Amino acid sequence: MSGPAALSGLTGEILPTAAMLAATFFYGVSAVLGRTFRDTDPIVSATCQLTASTLLLAPAALLLDRPWLLAMPGTAAIAASIALALFSTALAYVLYYALISRAGSTNTVLVTLLIPVGGTGLAWLTLGEAVGWAELAGMFWIGLGLVVIDGRALRRLLVPAPAVRPRSAR
Prior knowledge:
mainly alpha; 0% strand; extended
């Protein structure tokens, strides 16, 4: 995502690349730690997680953004922020913890592999962006990877189905 130039020396891409790698690492850690919440109500887990993150980030947001110096946002921006907070964040975390309790943390994290597929599809559908062979190939490899990880399709191919005897032979 940052290109080979970031590896050849100190460029402006080092900090964003490091942030991306740290986020990826902690996302994996969160999946492992998410197993401990398996027996906790998903609403409680989501509420605690969002409350803790708000309390941790609020001081930094206040110091860095100084919201009291910014112009008051319009009604559309406030409505969009509320919709994002309720549906794309709060509801998403409730579903995330519910999936962890039902399917396990590993299977829940596999859903993130579908994000590029969904993003590409939505960009094509809503923005009219072109979908070329590279995007289709990427979607194919993601789908194939999910099929291999799941294992059920491979088991059907490798393990022959039991022979069914005719009714008269029973």
